[in-house]
Amino acid sequence: FQHYYITNNLRLAMLEFLVSKVAMMLTLGMFSTGMHTVQKIRRKGTGDTPILPFCAFATGCFIWLNYGIITADGTLAFTNFVGTLLNCSYVLLYYWYAPNKKLVYQTVGLFLFLLIGVHMYSAWYHESPEEAKNFLGSCGVLVTIGTFASPLAQMKLVIKTKSAESMSFPLSVMVCAQCIMWWWYGYLIDDFFVQMPNVFGTLLAIIQIFVILKYWDNKPKTVSSVMDNV
């Protein structure tokens, strides 16, 4: 019985290791897609590309980095450390090419104010490490769900125009796989805060994939023609 117990624990530890590393690689791969947007900004300027996603990702990564540190989870800490650096570099490059730097100041300032408040409370004003963990986990869940919900507006446009040209199928599949792996990892380590946002992200990514497949071969209608039929 003892041999079975040790073997079973070893298998679970190996599974946890593998799942965590796959989740980490998928997440870092998704973060690196921002380089394509940055290259586009360097060639053509910021145009109608918003800075909000970069700020939201940087904020979420910083919160999860702190959560990983306080829970001694090396996978979460490393993944979100790299994510924080990447997304902060994207913000800096966006600022460099942005014609309206005042708007960038305002957006970045708002997120910095939020991060300072979160960090100060979790570092100094909590009554126990467990309370700090719960606070950071709750903040991470809210920011991550908000980030996952951002494609909803794009999906609405796809449904209106009856064309999926504006959405990336490979990226949607990557997001779905990433969410599934983090959900699985959260289950293996019995962490509700890691599981919760990725359940939502998985469901949303699956819906997004179905929407893309439904309108895959359709030629786009213009938004004006759609509005005329409303």
Account of the 3D structure:
83% of the residues lie in helices and 0% in strands. It is mostly helical and 230 residues long. Helix 3 (52-70) packs antiparallel against helix 6. The radius of gyration is 20 Å and the shape is globular. The chain starts with a helix and ends with a helix.
Give a quick rundown of the structure:
The protein is mainly alpha-helical and 230 residues long. The chain has 10 helices and no strands.
How far is it from the N-terminal to the C-terminal residue, by CA? 68 Å
How many β-strand stretches?
Answer: 0
Shape assignment? globular
On the 0 to 100 scale, the average pLDDT is 83
| Count of alpha/pi helices | 10
The ordered H/E elements are HHHHHHHHHH
What is Rg?
20 Å
Largest sheet: none
Helix content: over 70%
Query: Which blocks of ≥5 consecutive residues have pLDDT under 50?
Result: 222-230
Which structural category fits the helices and strands? Answer: mainly alpha
